[in-house]
Design brief:
By secondary structure, the protein is α+β, with helices and mostly antiparallel strands. It has a domain at 59-153. Helix content is 19%, strand content 33%. It contains 2 helices and 6 strands. The protein has helices at residues 21-43, 85-90, and strands at residues 59-72, 79-82, 100-106, 116-122, 131-144, 149-153. The strands form 2 sheets. It has a 4-stranded antiparallel beta sheet with strand order 2-1-5-6. It has a two-stranded antiparallel ribbon with strand order 3-4. The radius of gyration is 36 Å and the shape is rod-shaped. 3% of the residues are buried.
């Protein structure tokens, strides 16, 4: 093991004018160190949000999936129609009837999102049949853009 008998620190100072490449580089690095994290946090909508409230009108459109059941006073049973082919195979063909359907969606306030849905449905009936009740299931596509949320709604 060797002993240190004498040591002297060396101090070197580099000097330059204020308007130099080194000063410009130092200022740019400082600005990037301060502003870049703030920009990243702002663009990522904050960090570690646990709860957020959004107000947005969703885009709702008819998915053209429909299940319709008419209750009749006939002892034979109900009249059923569906736009789903797999479900039509499971239903007794005697009670399936195909209606005439007309539908449209309207944008009343011209904001680019549908506000009104109208459906006209004409079901062929025998003269002896009277409808006493209607059960229908409509499937709609439901989209919210701000949080990228899509689902099918009944």
């Amino acid at each position: 093991m060797l002993c240190s008998l004498f040591s002297q620190p060396t101090r070197i100072v580099h000097k330059s004018t204020f308007y130099s490449k080194a000063t410009a580089f130092h200022i740019i690095c400082f600005i990037l160190n301060v502003t870049l994290p703030l920009i990243i946090i702002y663009k990522s909508d904050g960090l570690w949000k646990k709860e957020e409230v959004f107000t947005e009108q969703p885009e709702i459109s008819f998915a053209y999936n429909l299940i319709l059941m008419l209750d009749t006073d006939d002892p034979i049973g109900n009249i059923v129609w569906t736009s789903l082919p797999q479900l039509n195979l499971a239903i007794d063909p005697k009670i399936i009837r195909a209606p005439i359907i007309e539908n449209y969606e309207m944008d009343v306030n011209m904001d680019g999102k549908k506000d009104l849905f109208k459906l006209y449905l004409l079901m062929p009936l025998n003269e002896s049949e009277n409808v006493v009740g209607v059960k229908a299931i409509f499937v709609f596509d439901y989209k919210i853009k701000k949080i990228d949320f899509k689902m099918d709604a009944i």
